[in-house]
Structure of Diaminopimelate epimerase:
Amino acid sequence: MKFTKMQGAGNDYVYVDCFKEKVQDPAAAAIKVSNRNFGIGSDGLILIMPSEVADVRMRMFNSDGSESEMCGNGIRCVAKYAYDHGIVSKKEITAETGAGILTLQLFTDGGNKVEKVRVNMGPPRLTRKEIPMLGNPDEKVVSAPLNVLHSTFNITCASMGNPHCVIFVDDVGNFPVEKYGPIIENHELFPRRTNVEFVQVVSRTEIRQRTWERGAGETLACGTGSSAVTAACVLNGLTEKKILNHLLGGDLEMEWSEDGNIYMTGPAVEVFSGEIDI
Ligand SMILES: N[C@H](CCC[C@H](N)C(=O)O)C(=O)O
């Protein structure tokens, strides 16, 4: 199988061009290629596929083999791959994902390669039934208490096609993400598990985020997570609607626009290509 390794803000995936390649068992392939000792090393596997309703289609598998509806850092890399490798020739493209059809705007460098992508991530879905979460299906979850081990956290939850649970902390750099992340990911409140974002508010326009991803553990960045966090910051009255988010692997520019959609702008980088037996 031919592949291309790409990363967006340090959130790295193995990308396969399914305009050319066929992947029989993507869940098994994701587990194999993601392994950082016995495989290529990545947070998961992303398939770049033809679509009947958009310019390109993305399917995304976590490093544990589970499939997610959406991946924010991944969709920017899919757009870069599609443009740089001649699948599309426009700078505004559409992509079919498990979270619907998204519109992306591509920004190129001097060599006409994509270096930055702005994605309309759509609106945050805020009710329990949309996330999904147990409890009153039509209720929003904004700063609701959740007991974990011997601590109580106030959680704000949103779906960007995939589920997110946002928790504000004082010192995100020293927060024990590995201790609380997996317990919240697998908490009975979330029937499809959840991604967990820990966030420190720096100012009305700047935040820091660390992410415990469903199916992958702590990663250097999460684009859908950053979108859910943007909504959570505003819903809790902590920031403006336009913020700069510092993640472990880089920065994302975020905006919850007046049109109700969340816009994410960030880098997309091709690292190397190769072939692997699967
Ligand atoms: N890192 C990705 C999200 C992966 C989400 C995945 N872990 C899930 O199961 O939903 C992003 O940039 O949006």
